[in-house]
Amino acid sequence: MFTRRRALLAALVWSAVSLSAGTALAQEDQLSAGDTAWIMTSTALVLLMTLPGLALFYGGLVRTKNVLSILMQCLISAGLIGVFWILVGYSLAFGDGNSIIGDLSKVGLAGITVDTLSGTIPEYVFVMFQGMFAIITPALMLGAFAERMRFGPYLAFIGIWIIVVYCPLAHQVWGGGWLADFGAIDFAGGLVVHMSSGFSALVAAIMLGKRRGYGKEPMPPHSVPLTVIGASLLWVGWFGFNAGSQLAADGTAGLAFLNTNTATAAAVLGWVGIEWMHHGKPTVLGAATAAVAGLVSITPACASVTPMGSIAVGIGASIVCYVAVTMLKPAAGYDDSLDVFGVHGVGGAWGAIATALFISETTDAGWGGQIGIQLASVAYVAVVAPLLTFIILTVLKLVFGNLTVDEEGEHVGLDISEHSESAYTGAPGAAAG
Q: Is residue 425 part of a domain?
């Protein structure tokens, strides 16, 4: 009798455990309508960052004769990378592969159906969300060589760069590669997006050379209002960029949402204060630049720091990026047309380091150990991304010859020389202005 009771009890316990495990598994694999709706919304917000956010931000910063070329380069990034991502990019970034790069198992999104899940959202939604990151990253670089690069070489450059630089880095950090195993924290792209594009942009600016007349004649923005509108759209879209990276509508997404705004606000205040003291008057262009610097810097840290920590990240961004833009660039003499390196390269590096400096919960590596991990990760991206970019541009020079427009083309502007269009046809001298 005792044996039968013990057997019955064991059977009941086993049934309860099995039912619990089955329920947990079912919950793990269950589609969440709330998460799906949020990530689809976030995807649209991230696209808003490129079109029209970045397009207007950069477009206002260049001279009248080059504004359409900027808009076109942003549009074509969405077109070219949007297709490349589906064909091969997603597979290289998120396929199984090895510690460096994904495999080709998901080329053309093979094996993915409407029922395939990535966590609690359809994998198709995850593909689309990550595709928006792939679109904006090479578009960020164009600001460094604005007003001089030919359209054909630009297409070839971003097409190769996304495969050779971006996809491996995305895999190494977000796709289960070695940087993830190493313990690097990059919640939404300080390393993968901003450092990779910023440091690559510096190499491109140096290799392509300066604009004719740079340092000798004024090259002011043709429309500060357009730039401010673009910066404002970037600020709004960045909520999807950062909070959406949690891939769920939960408390962590809420923290990232709050920190994104707080750090950006702090960066604006910090930059305006520094500029006021340094030059006697604050400028709206400086405030717009500060907003982007703050957004960049909080990107890797937004889910790892407290709101008070995000203020420190934002203030730090205003200091390091201000120094990079107003002091480092003039001293070094390179022509980074729209300060891509000073804002995205330096801001991304600061954000990655600040993630560990102000982290709210100690990781397995400990506070000091995490700082070491973040520093090593920053060093890795700062070397690998520009090195690969140098190789890509060297090869393209052999193929295309000159990657920039000739003297006449630069004089009349890329709008006319590359696209036979003018943004402001009614304005006297618009084509050459």
A: no
- Please state whether the peptide bond connecting residue 122 to the residue before it is cis, i.e. omega within 30 degrees of 0: no
For the beta carbon of residue 181, count every other beta carbon within 10 angstroms. 10
Residue pair 343/234 in contact (Cβ under 8 Å)? The answer is no
Angle, CA 299 vertex, CA 298 and CA 300 arms, to 5°: 100
Buried b (16+ CB within 10 A) or exposed e, 360-371: eeeeeeeeeebb
pLDDT tens for 318-348 read: 999 999 999 999 999 999 999 999 999 999 9
Q: What is the pLDDT of residues 147-199, one digit of tens each?
A: 999 999 999 999 999 999 999 999 999 999 999 999 999 999 999 999 999 99
* Residue 111: both structure tokens together: 């094996």
Nearest to 101 by CA among 48, 168, 43, 160: 168
Q: Which two tokens stand for residue 207?
A: 């290799």
For position 79, what pLDDT does the model report? 98
Q: What is the phi/psi pair of residue 336, to 5°?
A: -90, 95
The verdict on residue 68 lying in a domain is yes
Q: Parallel, antiparallel, or unpaired: how do β-strands 117-118 and 121-122 relate?
A: antiparallel
- Whether residue 126 lies inside any domain: the answer is yes
Residue with tokens 């393209």: 396
How many domains does the chain divide into? 1
Residues 403-423 have pLDDT tens digits of 999 999 999 999 999 999 999
Question: Mean pLDDT over residues 377-397, rounded?
Answer: 98
Helices (H) and strands (E) in the chain, counts: 20, 2
Beta bridge partners, 121, equal 118
Tokens of residue 25, six digits: 């598994």
Instruction: Provide the domain limits for residue 338.
Output: 51-419
Query: Residue 242: is its pLDDT beyond 80?
Result: yes
Query: Would 109 be classed as within a structural domain?
Result: yes
Please say whether the dihedral angle defined by the alpha carbons of residues 32, 38, 41 and 43, taken in this order, is positive or negative: negative
pLDDT confidence bin for 426, thresholds 50/70/90: low
User: 117 pairs with which residues across the strands?
Assistant: 122
123 pLDDT more than 50: yes
CATH number of the domain bearing residue 363: 1.10.3430.10
Claim: this prediction has a pTM higher than 0.85: yes
Beta bridge partners of 122: 117
